[in-house]
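$ ./design --mode recover --in tokens.txt
reading tokens...
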């Protein structure tokens, strides 16, 4: 809401020339959603510093998401297979036993 204040720490993906006291605006979808002033420049934390590290981190996240999606799909397939089986050991329709053979003639 207009007039609200907050403090946050931002970790930039790319190197940018920034200085204390510089004004900035955060934009999303072509609209300004926040504006502020850089109050302090913090030292680098444990953050990816090269493009390769960033890509490796993204690939690991994508792999983890794919594994989660695959396990959900497998669970859904298992549930669907269990639902297709008749309950209580009933035989499916059309599975009638063949007629008994006639006794041999004398």
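writing sequence...
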């Amino acid at each position: 809401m207009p007039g609200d204040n907050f403090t946050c720490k931002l970790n930039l993906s790319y190197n940018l020339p920034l200085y204390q006291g510089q004004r900035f605006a955060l934009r999303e979808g072509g609209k300004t959603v926040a504006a502020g002033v850089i109050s302090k420049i913090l030292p680098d934390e444990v953050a990816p510093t090269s493009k390769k590290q960033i890509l490796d981190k993204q690939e690991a996240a994508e792999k983890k998401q794919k594994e989660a999606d695959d396990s959900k799909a497998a669970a859904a397939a298992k549930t669907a297979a269990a639902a297709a089986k008749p309950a209580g050991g009933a035989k499916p329709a059309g599975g009638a036993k063949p007629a008994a053979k006639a006794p041999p003639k004398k």
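exit 0
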